[in-house]
Every structure is written in structure tokens, then in C-alpha cells.
Amino acid sequence: MRLLPGAGMLPLPALAQQRVFRIGLLDTGLGDSFAVPFLRKLEELGYVDGKNVAIERKSAAGNQKLLADLADELVRTRVDIIVTAGTPAGFAAKKATGTIPIVLGANSDPVGTGLVASLARPGGNATGNSLMAPDLSAKRLDILHTLAPALSRFAILWDSSNPGMAQRVRETKLAADKSQVLLHTVGPTNLNELDSAFADLLAARPDALLVTAEPFTRQHLNRILDFAAANRIPAMFEDSSFVDAGGLISYGPDYEAVFQKAAVFVDKILKGARPADLPIEQPTKFELVINLKTAQSLGLAIPPSLLALADRVIQ
Question: 236: helix, coil or strand?
């Protein structure tokens, strides 16, 4: 990044008077669910689009093939920092530049996928958030066991072209093995494959379904919700926004808080910190959200013990 001499030692108002920082936002397909909390936090930190920062938004809208060109466009426009939303966007940014600082704003597993060297010392030009958290998969299975004590067959629906989700699936498999639950995975990457995945799931007859939170599943959320409802399959999600849209239950990080942390990384880097020296942060706040209306439509009675643990219940 090209700071003015001594700029890293100046307070933000002085920096803002000297230059307008160009921030590139490279989005796999999370859209406003990422951008809104990120930009809100950025403004709280004193960065206002059109005043002391200029935001260049590039979105692949779920089409990962576009990311490489979009990342190259940001590099050509000489942005001061690139913020990525989604693991594929992180890979595209890393391939496009080894010098411009990169903030991994929403990344499933930056260490496991090789985007950074370690959580404590990421090295290189990238740092940011990891959505991985210890024992999260086991906790989700525990919740499903409470909801359905007879659970013996469990399925996971994920985008198998998303490298950030591979470790999530492996951890879920380990948790299922420990719980002696048979895990069935389906990994569609496009709409045609999604229809085939639904047929596969019907043949497997799972007692419950876990849907990962990523651009592909967000893009086709209504189809997934309709499938689960029509076939009366209890579905757990990783993001509460899926439950707000009609899903049954979710347990996962407070995604809005995670997305806001990306702005904190940007602030530190623009004030002179090196990405290599900023540890990757993992989520620390998790929320359990239950949609009682969906439970009733499925004929499920939510155990009082699970309701008592819920951070939010949708009536």
C-alpha cells in the first residue's frame, strides 16, 4: 500500500485530508448481506464513501468464473486494499496480487485452504476472518439430536466447488462418525446439479439436513426451503438469515459481527499495519435461532430444553 511519508502515525482526520483511499470489494455472491454491515462499520470507524474512501464494488453474483477478471480489474484500478466476501473471492484476489493488502472478510477456512500460513501469523499480503470454529459441527449434531432423538441418517448440502467448505464437510463427517450417524453428502455446483441433488436426497431419506452458508445456497435458498418443506425434512442452517427466510433452525456465528470485523481489519491496515502481522480471527459469538412457524408446518414439537437455549425464536 502506498501511504504518504509518516502517514501511519497520523490520526484519521489528517489522513482523510491528504488522500482518498480506494477500497475494492470483491464479492463471490454474498451481496448486501456482507456489504451492508461491512460498510456500516467502516463508516462508524470514520471512513465515508465519497469523502475519505472510494468503494469499488465487484460482484460475481455467484458465478465464480468471473472472479479472476474482476480481481484483475481491481488491481488495474490501483486500489489500496481489497476486501473479499467468500472463499473463492479470496483465492481470486491472492492470484491477482501479491502486494496489495487483502482482507478476507468472509472466508470459511483460510488456513486449511492455504490462503494464509497460520492463524497467528498469516504471512504474505492477506489476513481477515475465518468462519471455522472448533467443535461447531459437533454442536450442530447435538442440537439435531435434541430435536430428533432418533436421528440416524443425516445429510449435508454444500457447493463442492467451494474449497472453503471442504474442511466443514470433513468436520461434519467426523462428528457424525462419533455420534454413530450415517452422513450423506450432496455437492451441487449449478442449478441442474441442484435438482439432481434433491433426487439424491429423496433416495437417501435423511432424518435431517444441514445446508451450508455460502453464495450458492444463498442464491438458491428458496428452492432449498421449498424442497425441505415439501418433503418434511427438518433442515438446519449455518446462518440465521436462512431461518428468517423460512428455514427451521440455525446455529452458527453472528455473521453480521464477523462481516463488521472486516472493516476493523481495513482500519488497521490503512493506519499502517501489515496484513502478515495481523492474526486471523475466528468467530467468538454464536447464535441459535428457531422458527416455530416452520416447526409447526413440519409437525415438529420443539423440546422446551432447546427453546430455552435459543437466542431468538421466530413465532
Answer: strand
pTM metric for this prediction: 0.87
What's the residue count for the chain? Answer: 315
CA 106, 111, 112, 115 torsion-angle sign: positive
CA distance 158 to 139: 18
CATH number of 7-132+255-284: 3.40.50.2300
Whose grid coordinates read 464479492? 27
Neighbour order of strands in the sheet with 312-314:
182-186, 153-157, 208-211, 235-237, 249-253, 286-291, 312-314
Q: Is-same-fold flag (7-132+255-284; 136-254+287-314)?
A: yes
- Averaged pLDDT, 124-133: 92
Q: Which three cell numbers stand for residue 43?
A: 463508516
Residue pair 198/163 in contact (Cβ under 8 Å)? The answer is: no
pLDDT tens, residue by residue, 153-200 = 999 999 999 888 888 899 899 999 998 999 999 999 999 999 999 999
Alpha-carbon distance of 203 to 197, in angstroms, equals 10
DSSP states along 116-153: SS-SS---TTEEEB----TTHHHHHHHHHHHH-TT--E
Cell representation of residue 282: 475466528
Confidence of residue 137 (pLDDT cuts 50, 70, 90): confident
Beta pairing partners, 290:
249, 313
Q: How many CB atoms lie within 10 A of CB 201?
A: 19
Cell of 173: 463427517
d(CA 240, CA 145): 19
pLDDT digits (tens, 9 = 90+) for 263-300: 999 999 999 999 999 999 999 889 999 999 999 999 99
- Residue 77 to residues 52, 95, 116, 134, 249, Cα–Cα distance (Å): 17, 16, 25, 39, 43
- Give the three cell numbers for residue 19: 488522500
Specify the fold of 136-254+287-314.
Answer: Rossmann fold (3.40.50)
